[in-house]
């Protein structure tokens, strides 16, 4: 059977990232687009996000509206970016060199590598807690947190070292198993009764916009990955089908999980992985070990994705190390961050999701404007720093200084709006319009 044969290992050198995929290797089945955008969202992160909405003060109606609006806002740019991969044969960061130049892609590529390290930690904290509980129930083994985390990080690192084909296989086959497991868990939870969240008063605009920001960033965070996992499609793949499959994958995983989190929030003490896992385990009854195993396994699909993309991004940032070393460095730093930040998960998770929007939003706005306002074909890459790279830096810094809302800093516009955070919208549309207004001069570069 074909799925029992190990996929070929991806090239380990820098050229495997910096050059387009050879035509002979562009044979990926198009159904993998769905799975590569669906499976990484299968995990407790979506559930925790739904619970966070209630802790912010949203009732069911406002929470549902935020889920639908936020996920659509966040998922659409990612799906549109997915169609760039087949035509260019490049990773998402390398594809953006059309607009930013070979030097200009280094800042967002390095930020994306740092971002992948953070997501490693975010995904692995609840997964390690689930693995500890699972082994305790099933085998009577008591693992310390650092060891459970190390086991998961090692498996994810090996998968990412193996490369693109292994990561794609995990998304499809392990993703299918997780889909079945979480469907059963969800049905079991709902059958035991739910408490629709109520609020003493309707949430204010600032609170609602913050909720939408968290939900939008949950999907928009994949924008810097998307073409990494569509570039092996044939160059003549139908862009509309690629966009549709990516959109279906993102929304089909995030929205149901977040709604379940919203509905089960009343039975969860706090928006933390430990509380969510305990609640799901209790609600699932005899299927409790299945809950724990599914949550532990879900980190493999998500973090093999992160580590693999991180290895691409570190090379695109100008640090020309073998993919193996890049993957090892990413996994190791993610491990350290997870151990250090496990006790402050909810606060770190909320701030991390929002803060990432400030560089991803303008960057993907420029990338999409360049692609969809242009001829959508490969063209000579500017060797240096372009106008698009300047727009990226200026817009990112300006939106952070003026519009951001977090525990660390609140910008003057955000304070004037009562804490409402609209910087990601300003960043996306401002950068896209600024870049688009200056075409065709965007291809000129400075040495």
Secondary structure layout plus pairing:
Blueprint: H1 15-18, H2 31-38, H3 44-55, H4 60-82, H5 84-88, H6 92-95, H7 97-104, H8 106-139, H9 145-162, H10 164-191, H11 205-220, H12 239-264, H13 273-284, H14 288-316, H15 323-341, H16 345-372, E1 385-386, H17 387-403, H18 412-416, H19 423-437, E2 445-446
Antiparallel strand pairs: 1-2
Helix pairs in contact: 2-10, 2-12, 3-11, 3-12, 4-11, 4-12, 4-16, 7-17, 8-9, 8-14, 8-15, 8-16, 9-14, 9-15, 10-14, 11-16, 13-14, 14-15, 16-17, 16-19, 17-19
List unreliable stretches of 5+ residues. 441-447
**Count of runs of 4 or more consecutive helical residues:** 19
Widest sheet: strand order? 1-2
Strand content: under 5%
What's the rounded overall pLDDT mean? 83
Distance between the termini: 53 Å
Give the biggest beta sheet: 2 strands, antiparallel
Describe what you observe in this structure.
The protein is mainly alpha-helical. It is 70% helix and 1% strand. It contains 19 helices and two strands. It has a two-stranded antiparallel sheet.
Give a nutshell description of this structure.
This protein has 447 residues and is mainly α. 70% of the residues lie in helices and 1% in strands. Helix 8 crosses helix 16 (345-372).
């Amino acid at each position: 059977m074909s799925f029992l044969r190990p996929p070929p290992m991806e090239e380990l050198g820098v050229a495997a990232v910096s050059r387009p995929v050879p035509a002979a290797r562009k044979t990926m089945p198009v159904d993998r687009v769905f799975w590569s955008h669906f499976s990484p969202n299968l995990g407790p992160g979506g559930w925790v996000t739904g619970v966070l909405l209630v802790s912010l003060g949203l009732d069911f109606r406002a929470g549902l509206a935020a889920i639908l609006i936020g996920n659509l806002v966040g998922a659409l740019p990612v799906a549109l970016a997915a169609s760039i991969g087949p035509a260019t044969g490049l990773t998402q960061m390398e594809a953006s060199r059309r607009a930013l130049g070979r030097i200009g892609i280094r800042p967002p590529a390095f930020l994306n590598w740092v971002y992948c390290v953070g997501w490693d930690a975010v995904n692995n904290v609840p997964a390690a807690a689930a693995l500890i509980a699972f082994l305790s129930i099933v085998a009577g083994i008591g693992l310390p947190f650092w060891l459970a985390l190390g086991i998961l990080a090692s498996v994810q690192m090996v998968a990412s070292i193996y490369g693109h084909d292994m990561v794609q296989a995990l998304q499809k086959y392990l993703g299918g198993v997780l889909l079945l497991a979480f469907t059963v868990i969800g049905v079991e939870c709902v059958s035991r009764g739910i408490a629709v969240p109520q609020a003493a008063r309707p949430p204010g605009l600032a609170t609602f916009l913050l909720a939408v920001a968290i939900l939008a960033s949950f999907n928009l965070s994949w924008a810097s990955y998307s073409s990494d996992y569509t570039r092996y499609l044939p160059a003549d793949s139908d862009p509309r089908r690629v966009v549709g499959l990516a959109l279906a994958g993102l929304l089909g995983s995030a929205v149901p999980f977040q709604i379940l989190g919203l509905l089960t929030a009343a039975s969860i003490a706090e928006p933390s992985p430990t509380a969510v896992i305990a609640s799901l385990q209790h609600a699932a009854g005899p299927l409790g070990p299945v809950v724990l195993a599914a949550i532990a396994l879900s980190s493999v699909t998500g973090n093999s994705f992160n580590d693999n993309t991180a290895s691409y991004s570190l090379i695109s940032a100008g640090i020309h190390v073998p993919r193996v070393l890049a993957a090892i460095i990413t996994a190791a730093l993610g491990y350290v961050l997870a151990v250090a930040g496990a006790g402050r998960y909810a606060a770190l998770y909320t701030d991390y999701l929002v803060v990432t929007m400030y560089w991803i939003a303008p960057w993907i706005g420029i990338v999409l404007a360049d692609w969809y306002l242009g001829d959508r074909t490969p063209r000579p890459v500017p060797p240096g720093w372009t106008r698009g790279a300047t727009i990226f830096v200026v817009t990112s810094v300006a939106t952070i200084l003026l519009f951001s809302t977090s525990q660390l800093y609140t910008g003057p516009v955000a304070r004037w709006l009562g804490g409402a955070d609209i910087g990601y919208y300003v960043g996306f549309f401002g950068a896209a319009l600024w870049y688009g207004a200056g075409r065709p001069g965007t291809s000129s570069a400075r040495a």
